[in-house]
Structures
1.
Amino acid sequence: MAPETLKQVLESTDNIADTFRNTDINWQPYVFPDEYTNWIEEQRAVHESVAVVDQSVHMEVLDIKGPDAIDLLEYVCVNNFEKARTGEPPQAINYVACNPDGYVISDNIVFHLGENEFKSVGAEWPHNWIRYNAEAGDYDVQTEVTYHPDMYGQQDPENFRFQVQGPNALEVMEEVVDGSLPEIPFFQMDTIEIDGVETYALSHGMAAMPGLEIFGPHEYHDEVLDAIFNAGDQYGIRQLGSKAYKTGKIGSGWFVASVPAIYDHDELDGYREWLGADSREASLSLGGSFDSDDITDYYMTPMERGQDHMVDFDHEFVGREALEEMDQERERVTLLWDAEDVVNVYASLFGDGPTNKFIDMPDVANQWSSIHYDKILKDGEVVGLSKYPGYLVYERKFLSLATVDLEYSDPGTEVTFVWGDQTDKRRVERHDPVEIGATVAEAPYVRGGRRQM
């Protein structure tokens, strides 16, 4: 009998870490094209002029409403919701959820849009955690998934969602809005009007460039996008495909995903029984050279993800006691790959003998795994994990977000990491693993308008 829950999936395998490492990626949330024009010019537009990305259809949207909405959200995440209790909407909160041991389940952006009314946008992992706790706890709250990327082509989302970013982003938006564009501090919100359509605006820039994320009624999607293109034409505006969009996050220091910390803790047994065998949590695809039989070795803390400033101990939340006692062992950094070593990987394709793992450009790893972990070495010992790799043409570098032991986290430290994936994935070709040199740099590495959330 086929498993029906995540708990049954775990019971059906000897080692879930090994199962995930040998699972091919079977789902791609980026339902928009890889490129609209050319990924190199799309990356350059973000850094040199202005770019727009249509975020309307690739993220799940969860509505949370009711008198206990704040109590629920505050309990299942590390963030303090005091400003939602006392301040006026709209507001945005970079929501981070942890398990009882203080390891991250996932993160999203939660928008406070009205009294007892919230909308969470992003991955489904934190949404499942919110929904489960809403049902299992004594909360007067209603939750509803109003859009999921699987609905693409069958149902429109409630809202259009565009991100306009780059050195000329605010000049473009100044022309797009009715009246004058309000000054919005970083990661703060306001409302604007575009051709009479009330639109929310969040000051935000995922590629470390200044910009706005705007959203409003989806029926005006085409009209608003056309207005952005018309205003941006003089600056050479480009629409980002998934290649340029995904790689921009590396320079901005945002960890896209780590294994959700839900597979081992006894207190989460009910949650594993609630999650279906068809959930994304039940079919992860782990890639990279790091290989451990212990699934908890793939978990990450808020500190090593660079999210420690979001943890607020002035309220009760899942994982609080563990985080209060936890010492930071690793630091979020950027690895700058050695160019000669990278060229040698490509050169292996043109000589005799085994080849090395091919390096896709610019989105290095997400074509063959959903979550990536390469082991970082210093003097032959594992001292960290290289997590999210890619190429940025405006830096002329391959780089990756990583987490390393504190003693090796200083900028300029030389390390190596192992490039390869010795598993049975059909999407991974036969190859010999190879060490690539890297230099530790700060994260965020690209600066140009983004500050700490």
2.
Amino acid sequence: MINKILVVDDEPLIRNFLKEALTRLNKQVFTAQNGFDAIKKIENQNFDLIITDIKMPKKSGIDVLKFVKQKNKNAMVIVISAFAKINLAIEALNLGALNYLVKPFSFDTLKAIINKAEEHQDLISENLSLKKEISDCSFDIIAKSFYMQNLVNSIEKIALSKSSVFISGESGVGKEIIAKLIHQRSLRAKNPFIKVNLAAISPTLLESEFFGHEKGAFTGADFQKKGRFELASKGTLLLDEITEIPINLQAKLLRVLQEKEFERVGSSTPIKVDIRVISITNQDIEIAIKNKIFREDLFYRLNVIPIKILPLRERKEDILALAHYFLMKFSKENNKPIKILSKKAQKKLLNYPWPGNARELANMIERTIVMEKSKIIEENHLLLDTSSNKKNLTDQTTIEEGYIGKKISDVEKILILKTLENQKFNRSKAAKILGISTRTLRNKLNIYNIKK
């Protein structure tokens, strides 16, 4: 709430009108006859809002604005300008003025301007509050919701153990960030954190990537190579998209986890290894086990400490905190002033279901920072496909009703077939829509005996 206002104008008529009008709005009003007197008052006390004419003797309104912003960059200043001097008002806006009034103006116009200033003040206060909360967080973990706060607290205990961790959740929820936090908080923090993206490596090369190879072990092995297990010694090995590991390699991985030793490809000499394994997936591991594409005994070995990260739509308290974090992060990266979300923009973010989770939110915020010049991000600045989202929700409801009473495997088979048909049997496009790799899709086609 704006209570204390300084009015600066060399014209007594304008100065008195503003004092009377603002007093009617229950504001405490102070006045100054010129910019010089205004600066002296500002030096000795703080004001919630300063309304200043631009053209004045001794010190101009621009001088007052510059002085105020040096003292407090969040100070709110509204400038007054004649229509012929509108270019000066624009200059003032570029220097950080909140808004401007063009002479002559009515009481209703003044009231509307004050209401906007109070809304801006609320946004600034909320902005500072979120900034303080975020400054207490580390490693890009924003924990506003009770669920995420509990998760971060439990990570402190998990990190100090030696047990394997299995992190699951939808794409974009931050599984890898949680894995890195566990490593950084553990006794292994000074040792390597090695990541293996199982979906990105050819199945024929995966064993060599895992365990390394000796020179001459196979065609093209021109030198000895250490594998990821060896490189991660005394540190942490992250197995990303764990359900993508070929079934024939799963037995070897299980043996390494049990015996804590392995051999390079082309060698019979065992190499002892001391690592902590963290596995992450966005797939339903139970379905993978049921469909015989993932070993149940391997899952039990990896799943000593399970962590399930909820999607963003189920922890709405984190949405605005994350949005503010991304506003600060991407503004700094793009050398832009930090923007503020309007109330309507905040509401739009909260009402959107975020199918891409925090990653989608980050991309949208970065795009908005780059493309929009306004200091305040409004609802129409946020490019979200809400119409498509509503259609997807309607389609999903219809699909769910048609699937009631069917086995999960039957539902999955139908979904794969429908998606393939929709994409004219282009496996790469279908896999992308289904949220799985092309290799996983190929495995499922074999399981369900789909010959397309």
3.
Amino acid sequence: MKHLYTGIIIFLSLLNLNAQTLPDLDFEIFKTGFNSPVSIANAGDDRLFIVEQGGIIKVIDNGNTSTFLNISSIVNDGQSEQGLLGLAFHPNYATNGYFYIHYNNNTSTGSTGKQTSISRFRVEEFNPNIADPSSELVLLTIDQPYWNHNGGCIDFGPDGYLYIGMGDGGSSGDPQNYSQNTQSMLGKMLRIDVDNGNPYSIPSDNPFVGSINTLEEIWAIGLRNPWRFSFDKQTGDMWIGDVGQNAWEEINFQDANSSGGENYGWRCYEGFAPFNSSGCNNSYVDPVQVYENNGWPNDCSVTGGYVYRGTQFPNFVGHYVFTDYCTGKFFTIYDNLGGAGWTTTTQEDTQYGVSTFGEGNDGELYFADINTGIIYHIIDNSPVASNILEISKTEFYPNPTKAGNMVQINNNINFSEITITSLNGQVLYKCITTENAFQIPANLSDGIYFIQVNGLNPNTLVIQND
């Protein structure tokens, strides 16, 4: 699979690389033996944590699996979309030991609904692989009228605030129009400050602070069932997989510079198509990707994923990967025009029941097959030019290096302009210098980049911050 490379470094004549190789995804078993895994998280180290829907969190540490937390007695997983659904570790987890979960408790709040709890727990003081089940602090409860569309994803943004994805309350077609009701937390993306207040506070820059018509916790509205959202660890952009009704599945994108307040359209729209126009207006944000829902056993339910920012697979870097739960078909999206255009790749159907994706601290991506309890590592089999390091006469050292470090330049020509780009050609840094050294920007995350002198053929630059 090839796509013409539209970035700055279009023409690499020495290698005849006038096309960018798109990823060719494959999957290798990482760990087996889980019961209905629905979320994967890391705590800022080499461990992976696997959330089981019934109320247990397992930890994989150096290849060994053990129980981190068992709260099955307070979790209700009586219906297929209920249970322990999400996990997020505090940005300062290494020092405070706090983590947060999204689950259905045993309180009935509707005809078939069980109340949502957003709670904080902490790790045991003397064992990093065991949490204290008695340490729960309930931050927020949200009544659920029906058993389905509970949302379930929870994550900290690059701003340090906790984001909470909530579904529209369930049934079919959002009969109470909760998603567009700004006095309801259902069908919303919420954003709260867990470091201040009792038990939380509202960030001062939330879009509806001071409003008498909209709950201040709301960051964005118009979601049906955001089954997995994530943040690009390099750019801070938010990606949301929102499950459709019966016609369209969609991916929503929020730029890192957004001030919030987006309305993603449900129930007025499903994808780009009108669904229920009652009480609607024209102030909606379109999805960046939709695909047709043809009903089981065809494509019928999106599972949102992550942007790959690891270092093992250069052609995969910068691609957002997601899948359809019903067919196991994988897709990737990447920004090929600096925010002005998207390119999508469709991988083959796999038949995996992908309930969730997860990201390791090193940027490697994983997914869970809920049917088999297997965790897979996503790999890329697309060819990488073995001699790409030789396409430039300029040498940079140390390479790999860390963001913020000084890099020495060794070449035999006069130079003045240094440019660093992503593999997709987006300019990330440019400077003018006559010195034989320059400082790598401090905001570069782990990954592979191109670096050029005077616009000549690029060399690869590897950033490894750990």
